[in-house]
Design goal:
CATH superfamily of the largest domain: Beta-grasp domain
Number of strands: 5
Order of helices and strands: EEHEEEHHHHH
Helix content: 25-40%
Structural class: alpha+beta
Radius of gyration: 15 Å
Distance between the termini: 29 Å
Strand content: 5-15%
CATH architecture of the largest domain: Roll
Largest sheet: 5 strands, mixed
């Protein structure tokens, strides 16, 4: 089947099998490997991307369902050689160790901040509830997201 999608501001027209997930297309066809393949059941959040402004588990979205959609992945975040405020905050707050969950965690945080620029700690906890991290401190992750929320103008602009 033929699908058209916009990924990180670039238009693609791809031939996909009906059973391929968006995760498979991003990683295997477009070589955007920042989106991680974890549980493939929508439980870990490692594959979180933003589709039409909403954080989704790309392992649960069929590629054909992404036809005509605007998709944003971790690769679209940094620009002009500079880290995005969320990425910078994760580094500054030691909000990761192995880094496997970090792209999905950041994408969930980005969707939250684009929707709610001044989140509370509870808002952040709810937004990342679907993202599992086995080795970092959730306290530092929450601190990083709240710190990044102070630079909302840059965050919102990153998806324009």
């Amino acid at each position: 089947m033929k699908v058209k999608m916009n990924v990180n501001g670039r238009d693609y027209e791809l031939l996909v099998e009906p059973n391929w997930s968006l995760l498979d297309v991003l990683r295997d066809k477009l070589r955007l490997t920042g989106t991680k393949k974890g549980c493939e059941e929508g439980e870990c959040g490692a594959c979180t991307v933003i589709v039409d402004g909403k954080a989704v588990n790309s392992c649960l979205v069929l590629a054909v369902e992404a036809d005509g959609k605007k998709i944003f992945t971790i690769e679209g975040l940094a620009g002009n050689g500079e880290l995005h405020p969320l990425q910078r905050a994760f580094v500054e707050h030691h909000a990761f160790q192995c880094g496997f969950c970090t792209p999905g965690m950041i994408m969930s945080a980005l969707a939250l901040l684009n929707e709610k620029p001044n989140p509370t700690e509870e808002d952040v906890k709810k937004a990342i509830a679907g993202n599992l991290c086995r080795c970092a401190d959730y306290t530092n992750i929450i601190k990083a997201i709240l710190e990044a929320s102070k630079d909302v103008r840059h965050i919102i602009r990153s998806q324009s």
